[in-house]
Design brief:
- The protein is of the alpha/beta class and 355 residues long.
- The chain is built from 15 helices and 6 strands.
- Helix 1 crosses helix 6 and helix 7 packs parallel to helix 12 (271-283).
- The longest helix has 20 residues, at 151-170.
- It is globular, with a radius of gyration of 20 Å.
């Protein structure tokens, strides 16, 4: 498939995103107001239930089959020494996901969710029966000296993310979470946040894997250099992804668009996932109602990044692990929101006087 065909395919999938069902959301709100509680007293749980009705177009969607899509890719910018960990950790952690030993695996088991691990850009050969091998690049190029990827590679990665969601929907999955693994990806995410979100490099760059003050100052300089060298056009989100992004971030853009196109809620994890969400919202504005922000990461630019997208996080646990951990935790809140709506008595059924 040539570049033009790939762009047309992406535009076609974006155009297929169904409109958010405001009538279903309003019906959910009316039902919520009849439950034995003061109106609005369940806060974001009530808001969540209404959002889920609007997303699914009915009361109440079955979200019992769920999956966290963990996209994995390496980053050439690690050559600049921006991380506390070497790039070799990326493939090692992928194997940890596949053996069920990572934090996201533990939380996914608790939430009855599948972990779908995708090699979309790891810089080494990986083999495992549970690995979804859809490699687009063997790691990105060093964005501090030139573009991280070509436009064609970015499109392939985005379309791959959409394909992965389509495959999971055919298996019955109706609720998605975004996860990622890639040493150096907070650097790429900070560059995306700076270009598309209007943050300064000083505000966008955080400590990632836990770097000290000197390395933090260096990381800020690397992001600033990457933007100066590549001059990505903020009016072209695909160009921003190509010049200062990552394969796993592009893959997550596809996951978000694919979830929206399939009328499925997609729970956004931390800083890296939110960078993907920002790109997705700029490419496909109709995908925004399908996004649920899970948590406020401890990464310093995350709050402003969420504001740039227009999302409000559900929880704040000072997490900064990634992998999809915060997103999977919020599956429990989604379950709680739906159960409250389905199982609480109404004022009439309980014989309780309504103010």
């Amino acid at each position: 498939m040539n570049l033009s065909e790939m762009e047309q395919q992406l535009l076609s999938r974006i155009a297929s995103i169904p409109a958010y069902d405001t009538e279903a959301a309003e019906q959910a709100a009316r039902h919520s107001d009849q439950l034995t509680k003061p109106p609005g007293s369940l806060g974001k749980l009530e808001e969540m239930a209404c959002r889920l009705a609007g997303i699914g177009g009915k009361l109440w969607p079955d979200l019992s089959r769920r999956a966290v899509i963990v996209m994995a890719g390496d980053h050439g910018v690690c050559e600049e020494g921006v991380s506390a960990f070497p790039s070799a950790v990326t493939p090692q952690m992928v194997m940890n996901f596949l053996s069920g030993g990572a934090a996201v695996n533990v939380l996914a088991r608790q939430a009855n969710a599948d972990v779908v691990c995708v090699d979309i850009g790891v810089a080494s050969e990986l083999s495992h029966p549970e690995l979804v091998s859809r490699k687009v690049v063997y790691g990105t190029a060093n964005m501090a000296i030139g573009p991280a990827m070509s436009r064609q590679e970015v499109l392939e990665a985005v379309l791959t993310g959409i394909d992965i969601v389509d495959e999971q929907v055919k298996r019955g999955v109706s609720l998605f979470a975004t996860g990622e693994m890639g040493i150096g990806n907070t650097t790429a995410s900070a560059a995306i946040a700076a270009v598309l979100g209007g943050l300064s490099p000083d505000a966008a760059v955080g400590r990632g894997t836990g770097i000290g003050d000197d390395k933090l100052a260096h990381k800020i300089d690397v992001v600033r250099r990457a933007i100066d060298v590549n001059r990505p056009d903020p009016g072209d989100p695909l160009e921003v992804l190509a010049k200062v992004g990552g394969a796993e971030i592009a893959g997550l853009v596809g996951v978000i668009i694919g979830a929206a196109a399939n009328r499925c809620p997609v729970v956004i994890d931390g800083y890296i996932s939110s960078a993907a969400a920002l790109v997705a919202s700029r490419l496909a504005a109709d995908s925004l109602p399908y996004m649920i922000a899970s948590h406020l990461s401890h990464e310093q630019g995350h709050g402003r990044l969420l504001q740039a997208i227009g999302l409000s996080p559900l929880i704040h646990l000072e997490m900064r692990l990634g992998e999809g951990t915060g997103a999977v935790l919020c599956f429990h809140l989604i379950d709680a929101a739906l159960r409250l709506m389905q199982e609480m008595a109404t004022f009439d059924s309980a014989g309780v006087s309504k103010a």
